[in-house]
Amino acid sequence: MGRVKLTIVPPGKPLVGRAVPPGSKSITNRALLLAGLARGTSRLTGALRSDDTRYMADALRAMGVTIDEPDETTFVVTGMGKLLPPSEPLFLGNAGTATRFLTAAVASVDGTVVVDGDEHMRKRPIAPLVAALKSLGIDVEAPTGCPPVTVHGIGHFASGRVEIDAGLSSQYVSALLMAAPLAPKGANAPVTVALAGAEIGARGYVDLTLAAMQTFGAKVEQIDAASWKVEPTGYRAADFVIEPDASAATYLWAAEVLTGGAIDLGVPNGAFTQPDAKAYDVISKFPYLPAEIDGSQMQDAVPTLAVLAAFNETPVRFTGIANLRVKECDRVRALSLGLNEIREGLATEEGDDLIVASDPSLAGQTLPAAINTFADHRIAMSFALAGLKIGGITILDPDCVAKTFPDYWDVLASLGVAYTDIE
Ligand SMILES: O=C(O)C1=C[C@@H](OP(=O)(O)O)[C@@H](O)[C@H](O)C1
Ligand SMILES: C=C(OP(=O)(O)O)C(=O)O
Questions:
Q1: Three-state secondary structure of 169-211
Q2: Using an 8 Å Cβ cutoff, are 301 and 247 in contact?
């Protein structure tokens, strides 16, 4: 069981030191899946070990993949070139990547697979992905439009053209792309994956998917901005070095500018290939963040930017963030509730936009506020930033950070942050 709460003691000085973010969640879960689908042994280094990657690894183990963890950041994955039917439903917690990616991939299992998650995941939509799989002739159902999903696989993925509406989640596109090489070699091959609408969340996640697929031997051709052709090659084992997590890096970048510190992340800002690395340029403008920030291409960085905006010189409107309402929690709501808990009127929701009023005089005040994190790691990690400048900020359910950054509180402590009221 995790702790109930902790209160952050503002350090009252710049945060200075070295703090390397953990491995990328997005890349680790892609690499685990593709290595698990390949025949042979793959070595994944620099990987993230957290709740989300454990759910993915355990699900693959339940389908016959051997995964060793020789040290804190390495997975050694030995696959047989196919997944076997698991004896029980796959339980994937609230890991969106694991849930969406496996829903498509298990269509290649010869047998029935149930993909399920916790009470939060059971509210996160998966109907567009299920509809796309059905359109390929795959026998799949998700009666509530959310997990659990039951997939009756026939031993391989299906060939043909599939359209996907990715307005709610780019993970649906990634899921179809990664399953596509598992189609049978034959008449209808290759698989074409096409976007149904122009709308898609952060495109950069599809680029991460394509890069990982290529590392594991897939052949993908981009036909145009909205469609891809994937050859039925299957996957081959590969060694893969995983870069640090850019979303995790945003908390450290923000902590640096908020406290006027100097934090060495051990990786140059330009070295990230993940979408959230775009947040660096925005964060470095603090306390003169722009009046409008389009969060659509760096969605997981929005909580970080929204809390930072509270200390900005001028108000900030966040646009392009509608799908934050279907993440681990409704993040637009959680951010506005948390900011208003600190100071009434600090945030307003306008449709799906979030407007942060901004009040540089917050810094140095004591404003006791208990932040409901809704079990969402990013709400916990971003509101911790407010606690670097305001006394009395209490984070409820702080150990929900284990989803992607289990050492978060220790990393802040190593930079000089202290906590009280820990229960
Ligand atoms: O593909 C990925 O690795 C991810 C895609 C994004 O989700 P959506 O595609 O659901 O917006 C992001 O929020 C999530 O943390 C990771
Ligand atoms: C949205 C997130 O995760 P996921 O969709 O992978 O559960 C996140 O990590 O912010």
A1: CCHHHHHHHHHHHHCCCCCCCCEEEEECCCCCCCCHHHHHHHH
A2: yes
- Check if the beta carbon of residue 42 is closer than 8 Å to that of residue 77: yes
Sheet holding 160-164, edge to edge: 160-164, 191-195, 227-230, 220-224
Encode pLDDT of 361-372 as tens digits: 999 999 999 999
When pLDDT is averaged across residues 193-211 and rounded to a whole number, the result is 89
In the chain, the domains with their CATH numbers are 5-22+244-420 (3.65.10.10), 25-241 (3.65.10.10)
Ligand at minimal distance from the CA of 376 is 2
ipTM of the complex: 0.99
Q: What b/e sequence results for 15-51 when a residue is b if at least 16 CB atoms lie within 10 Å of its CB, and e otherwise? A: beeebebbbbbbbbbbbbbbbbbbeeebbbbbbbbbb
Residue nearest to ligand 1 atom 10, measured at CA? 169
**CA–CA dist 185, 191 (Å, integer):** 10
Kindly give the distance from the C-alpha atom of residue 366 to the centroid of ligand 2, in angstroms, as a whole number: 32
Instruction: Tell me, in angstroms, the distance from the centre of ligand 1 to residue 219's CA.
Output: 23
